[in-house]
UniProtKB/TrEMBL annotation:
It holds the Pfam family Nucleoporin_N. Belongs to the nucleoporin Nup133 family. It is found in: Nucleus envelope. This is Nuclear pore complex protein NUP133. The keyword Nucleus applies. Residues 1-10 have a biased composition (Basic residues). The keyword Protein transport applies. Residues 1024-1159 form the Nucleoporin Nup133/Nup155-like C-terminal domain.
């Protein structure tokens, strides 16, 4: 780190256990003398090695000097190897991967040849492909550092000798190469959830001194064709020298070293490359030179075309001279980078940024035949405007160097490393300030705009080190910047002398973490980001070292181990790892007897999962630690003695029952048991170790220990406490047992698959190849790789080892199955291969879920009450994984028509088994949501949709089996009828369990078994009618009414509920049940229902219509039937009321016929027969009629409706009285009355013929017939009977007073209504309807 190391004690007097300790110490001392420092001393000779100077050298010749050094071990946390705790130092880096053996062998060969390689090699990590590379002599080694050691594939590329000869580049220039890896494999550019290993990649190398270019079109090609090369012409070489150094170019090249002074030599500073879409094995590379030139290299299998596309890209207005450059500009342009690191093959052009000494420029290259490069825009970042970038010419500011530029994965944020030389005005001393400038595109501006201010500051300048020692330009321009790792927003600065510094700005404070290995481990060559297993997360930082392999810097280490920026340099000068040779010799005498140890997965604390993004580091409390330690102590005592001495009381006192879920101490202990990593597994034996019984033995040992843990919980009464207080925690503990049992069965399945494959393959095939093949093995590799990337402490383990060890993460099996299904089962593979691989994965999924269900059934007494608890196999990630496998089987099922019957049956059985476990998972998830009172409609719809898709496809296949059986003449070629019935019966049972009514109905219809149908209806009753309701619905849609009503004999209540929506059949069912009163009401309602068109939507999406189209004659018949049913129900008072209402409605129907026939305006006879008028409409028609009888019919309608109707439509009743008064000529009657002098008897006779008299008699007379209350409750005759005397329109008398003849004949009009009320008389007309028919 940045703090100084404490002074070490003298260890010379430490005794050596080995009897050859003196010789070992002497050899170690000699080895130390020859071990180069970093930076390498120019006076140190590299040719005085003694071949026997290295003690205990392996037979392979692998150099051992760096491995046992105490300085290396100082960086490695001393871990707890018992597997019971996590004692690793959280601020230490973690060893990830060793170099491939080929690299070690090459390093050993160079050492044997007395060639010192330290400080001269180069290397890097390609973030896109996760390929690491390193140069040794004239060879380049490329490998995937994510691959486990057992499966690591290292590609060795030979640098052609002619390039070395033509360019005069010797082995001393091994670090003079720029290298780009171009991913040519489109299949590996898809999902980033579990990145694929690149299967096709091109490599472009460029010597930044001699400008020689080498191109390998496909490093994974089996043809091993020689690379394509291109060397600079003599004219081009002339341009790389400044005028004062051209004469000494050869001498300069021989004396120049990496990081040495390059004054007078214009070199390539940066190289980027991209694949050309549509052109196989064709790439384009771009390089910028320190003399301001931009070069393009068109690389293909047939050759490399190089051309200079820009002459001077660095000239600024402040620079003078004809060339626009001065001596201070010899390092620029500095850096090239693509705007979007991830390139889509469909894009025809790419944008890239170029960093100069004062601005950032954006170019576009057309990825076509001409490879045209055009400049889009440039923006000044070092100028007078501080809002744009860096403000210069400030007091105390002497010089500004933009050193490197990087862009985030989304192409939105641009990060620039800047160093400023400042002068302390107090002490007059010079110091350097390291800063990070972050820019982003302005909102609303197009990326190809020529606006001068297209970028803006994303945040203020972040100062990494405010005051650092002065460094020369050689050191400054060896620095590189990397972005994109954890913690989010952090950056890494790599210095040329071998250190990497992580800068993290959080909560307005910058903290630095320095990765600095001992000198004997070599320099840091490059840094990158570990691909994350999740799209939304960054990965941890990984560092490639020169001699110590690849290391990772966990996020937790940066957060906890970061320090505030000191007034120190980013170089190794003053580093805590800078030791004297004497101290190293003393350390070797102590380290000689200790085996080398490294930070690895054995330090992984299995009880504490490190997946959450650390916004701050959540640490367990001291009480949690004490509780867990106490539980482990009590459990270990139980294992040794079988006694539980007051365990419950002790654990309650320690607070062990205060937390539920994953944080519960019992859960953590259970998880540590099942997730224990085996200490004796290795990564170099790969599948060979997995082929042995060690995997199964390890899993069985875990299972036995977990059973002991459950016994401990039961005997100590902790089980009862958890069952009552922490049900979720207890469920998780038991689910650990489920997963462990499932993992054991999965291992047995893999063994069985391997045995079956070994029996069918050639005897020449090795058992290792058999183990490492198949879909299940591929998926295990993906799951293990995901776990390793989520946890850097597991990176040194094999993928399969991680998978079989991390039992609690069994859900990841289904996650990767969903995310990588197209990778494991590729559609372009032959059908037989897809079929075989799909069946393997199906067997795995079914084995896992059925094992868990069996475990739960066998140990059901251990489980807490399940209300509100969702089993792990019902979680969305598990369901999605199973559905992905089922989707592949469904696709294969639709494509299997041309294959044999046994393959079809095999595929059917696998899909049926997978459908069964998937539907069980959905059922459990829905039940849990309902019990918790959570929203479950969406989940329920998804459950139904997938249930129908699976079971309908299965039944369709069964029907094909049946058709094949019927078409088969011999019968032996196909399936037997019993076998088909057995398959159908099992499918029917699945459909019954999950309520797939459509399949159940189809099966019953196809077999034409009514008894089976009735049995299923009895078994599948539900709150909404269950399957019975579905059967009723299908029968009604198909208009099989007789079959529907017959089912009412066995299902009377269910059919009654269903027929409430279908009254045209309900009354028949009521009559069958002798429910006459209900039948009468139904018939009555049906007779008065409007003619409507009801729509019922079938499950297939088709619409079937049931029309209710009744004529008036039909309605009268229904009313007669209703009347008969009412009499059949009884003769009580209620029956009389019902009958009266029916009779009144009959009268209204008959009156409607007369009214519509009497109106000349209605000519449509169809309308007369079918239309049922509302009483209001019927009364209005009467008011429109011209005949005198229409006025009386209106009063009849009012009389035969209800009292509520009369109250609501009182205004309409008043209109009827007005019309009645206007039917007679009262002025003429009054004149006759006066002239003729009518007697009382004549007056009565003459008034009887008036409509007013007849209306009064019908409404108010002694013989008036009304339903419910009389007219006087709504409209009294006389005004003196009114409750409100002031209301002039609340009586018949008041209405008549408004008549035009009332002033003259008012007495006669009042006499007519009063005599009609008192006399009564004949209230019917011959043309009027009789009260009863």
């Amino acid at each position: 780190m940045f703090s100084s190391a404490p002074k070490k004690k003298n260890t010379n007097a430490t005794p050596l256990r080995d009897h050859g300790g003196a010789a070992a110490a002497a050899a170690a001392a000699a080895n130390l003398f020859h071990s180069p420092a970093t930076p390498q001393s120019r006076q140190r000779s590299s040719f005085i090695f003694n071949e026997n100077a290295v003690p205990n050298r392996p037979s392979t010749g692998t150099p051992a000097p760096w491995a046992p050094r105490l300085s290396v071990l100082a960086r490695v946390p001393q871990v707890d190897r018992s597997g019971k705790g996590d004692d690793t130092d959280p601020i230490k880096p973690v060893f990830v991967a060793e170099f491939p053996q080929l690299v070690r062998d090459e390093q050993a060969t160079l050492l044997h040849k007395r060639v010192s390689v330290e400080g001269l090699g180069s290397g890097g990590i390609d973030k896109d492909t996760s390929l690491a590379w390193i140069t040794c002599g004239n060879r380049v080694f490329i490998w995937s550092y994510l691959s486990p050691a057992s499966g690591m594939r290292c590609v060795v590329l030979e640098i052609p000798s002619k390039v070395l000869e033509d360019g005069d580049t010797g082995k001393s220039d091994a670090g003079s190469w720029l290298l780009c890896v171009v991913n040519c494999d489109d299949t590996s550019k898809g999902t980033n959830k579990v990145p694929k290993h690149c299967s096709s990649a091109a490599v472009i190398m460029c010597n930044w001194k001699t400008r020689a270019v080498i191109y390998w079109p496909d490093i994974y090609s089996e043809s091993h064709n020689p690379p394509v090369t291109s060397v600079a012409s003599s004219d081009e070489l002339e341009t790389v020298l400044t005028p004062d150094r051209r004469s000494s170019f050869g001498k300069h090249r021989r004396q120049s070293k990496v990081g040495g002074s390059l004054n007078g030599l214009h070199t390539f500073n940066s190289l980027i490359a991209s694949v050309v879409p549509g052109c196989k094995f064709v790439c384009v590379a771009l390089a910028c030179s320190s003399n301001g030139e931009l070069w393009q290299f068109h690389c293909g299998p047939d050759g490399i075309r190089r051309r200079k596309v820009y002459e001077n890209v660095t000239r600024s207005p402040q620079q003078g001279g004809e060339s626009g450059q001065n001596v201070s500009n010899k390092w620029y342009p500095r850096s090239l980078t693509w705007r979007f690191p991830h390139h889509s093959p469909k894009e025809s052009n790419r944008q890239f940024f170029l960093l100069t000494d004062h601005e950032i420029q954006c170019f576009k290259v057309e990825l076509s035949s001409d490879m045209h490069v055009s400049k889009l825009w440039s923006q000044e970042i070092v100028g007078t405007d501080a809002e744009v970038g860096i403000k210069k010419d400030l007091a105390g500011q002497k010089k500004i160097w933009p050193l490197d530029v990087q862009v985030d994965d989304h192409g939105k944020v641009i990060t620039i490393l800047v160093v400023t030389l400042c002068n302390d005005r107090i002490s007059s001393s010079s110091y350097m300030q390291y800063s990070i400038l972050t820019l982003q595109y302005k909102s609303g501006l197009d990326s190809e705009t020529t606006n001068d201010r297209i970028l803006e500051k994303k945040s203020p300048m972040e100062v990494i080190i405010p005051k650092a020692r002065y460094e020369d330009e050689d050191f400054l321009f060896s620095m590189r910047l990397r972005v994109g790792g954890k913690p989010s927003g952090s950056t890494v600065v790599i210095s040329g002398d071998g250190t990497a510094t992580v800068s993290h700005y959080h909560r307005n404070l910058t903290r630095l973490y320095k990765f600095d290995l001992p000198y004997d481990a070599g320099k840091v060559l490059d840094a990158s980001v570990l691909p994350s297993a999740d799209d939304y997360e960054e990965g941890a930082w990984v560092v490639l070292t020169e001699k110590a392999g690849i290391w990772a810097i966990p996020e937790k280490a940066v957060i906890l181990g970061g320090v505030e920026p000191p007034e120190r340099s980013l170089s190794r000068k003053g580093s805590s790892n800078e030791r004297s040779a004497q101290e190293e010799i003393r350390n070797l005498t102590v380290a000689g007897n200790f085996a080398p140890r490294r930070a690895s997965s054995e330090a992984w604390g299995t009880g504490d999962r490190q997946r959450a993004v650390l916004s701050g580091v959540a640490r367990r409390t001291a009480q949690d630690e004490e509780s867990e330690a106490l539980l482990n102590l009590l459990f270990n005592d139980f294992l040794s003695s079988g006694q539980v001495d007051r365990a419950l009381e002790k654990l309650e006192t320690s607070g062990s029952f205060q937390r539920d879920g994953e944080t519960n101490v019992f859960v953590r202990t259970s998880k540590s048991i099942i997730d224990t990593l085996a200490k004796h597994w290795t990564t170099t034996r790969g599948a060979e170790i997995l082929a042995m019984a060690v995997v199964s033995t390890q899993l069985l040992e875990k299972q036995q220990k977990h059973q002991k843990f459950l016994q401990f919980l039961a005997l100590s009464k902790c089980h009862e406490e958890l069952c009552s207080r922490q049900r979720h925690a207890l469920q998780i503990i038991l689910e650990h047992g489920e997963k462990l049992s499932a993992m054991i069965q999965l291992r047995e399945l893999q063994n069985m698959i391997s045995q079956n494959r070994s029996a069918s393959v050639n005897s020449l095939g090795s058992s290792s190849d058999i183990q490492m093949s198949g879909a299940l093995w591929d998926l295990i590799q993906l799951v293990g790789e995901r776990a390793r990337r989520n946890t850097v402490l597991l990176m040194d383990r094999d993928n399969a080892e991680v998978f079989y060890s991390k039992v609690s993460d069994l859900e990841d099996f289904f996650y990767c199955l969903d995310a990588e299904i197209e990778y494991v089962i590729r559609p372009e593979h032959p059908f037989e291969i897809q079929f075989q691989r799909a069946c393997e994965l199906t067997n795995a999924c079914v084995t896992i879920i059925t094992t868990c269900l069996n475990y739960k059934n066998e140990n059901h007494l251990w489980y807490p009450p399940p209300e509100g608890l969702t089993p792990w196999y019902c979680q969305p990630v598990v369901r999605k994984g199973i559905w992905s496998g089922a989707s592949v089987l469904l696709r294969l099922l639709s494509e299997i028509s041309g294959f044999d019957k046994s393959s079809k049956l095999d595929l059917y059985s696998h899909l049926e088994a997978l459908a069964e476990v998937l539907l069980e998972a959905y059922s459990g998830a829905v039940t849990a949501k309902i019990e918790c009172g959570e929203e479950h409609k969406g989940l329920l719809n998804e459950y139904w949709e997938r249930r129908d898709a699976l079971l309908e496809s299965l039944y369709q296949q069964v029907k094909e089996f049946e058709a094949t059986y019927k078409d088969s003449i011999e019968g032996s070629e196909g399936m037997t009828g019993d076998a088909i019935l057995k398959i159908m019966s099992h499918l029917l049972s699945i459909a019954k369990r999950h309520g797939c009514y459509k399949v159940m109905w189809t099966i019953c219809c196809d077999v034409n078994d009514s008894e089976l149908l009735r049995n299923i209806m009895h078994e599948s009753l539900g709150p909404d009618g269950g399957f019975s309701y579905y059967v009723f619905k299908k029968l009604h849609e198909s208009r099989q009414f007789s079959e529907l009503l017959r089912l009412g004999e066995e299902f009377p209540e269910e059919l009654s509920v269903f027929l409430k929506e279908h009254p045209d059949l309900l009354w028949l069912h009521d009559l069958f049940l002798h429910q006459y009163s209900s039948a009468s009401e139904t018939l009555h309602e049906l007779a008065l229902a409007q003619n409507v068109q009801s729509t019922s939507v079938a499950e297939e999406g088709e619409q079937e219509y049931s029309k209710l189209n009744l004529k008036l004659s039909d309605r009268k018949n229904l009313l007669y039937l209703s009347k008969i049913a009412a009499f059949a129900a009884g003769t009580d008072a209620g029956t009389q009321v019902k009958v009266g209402r029916i009779e009144a409605d009959l009268k209204i129907l008959k009156l409607q016929e007369q009214v519509m026939e009497g109106l000349p305006s209605i000519k449509d006879k169809q309308l007369v027969e079918h239309q049922l008028l509302h009483p209001e409409d019927l009364i209005k028609l009467c008011l429109e009629g011209e005949g005198r009888e229409f006025s009386l019919w209106a009063f009849d309608v009012f009389a035969w409706t209800s009292a509520s109707f009369r109250k609501v439509y009182r205004r309409l009743l008043e209109d009827c009285w007005r019309k009645a008064a206007s039917q007679d000529d009262w002025s003429k009657l009054h004149d006759s009355y006066i002239v003729e002098g009518w007697s009382d008897e004549e007056t009565l006779q003459n008034l009887k013929s008036t409509i007013l008299f007849q209306a009064s008699s019908r409404c108010y007379g002694p013989g008036a017939v009304t339903f419910e209350e009389g007219f006087d409750q709504v409209l009294p005759l006389r005004q003196e009977n009114m409750e409100t005397p002031g209301d002039t329109s609340s009586s018949v008398e008041a209405i008549l007073m408004q008549h035009k003849d009332f002033p003259v004949a008012g007495k006669l009009m009042l006499m007519a209504i009063m005599l009609g009320c008192e006399e009564g008389g004949d209230t019917t007309y011959e043309e009027g309807p009789s009260p009863m028919e």
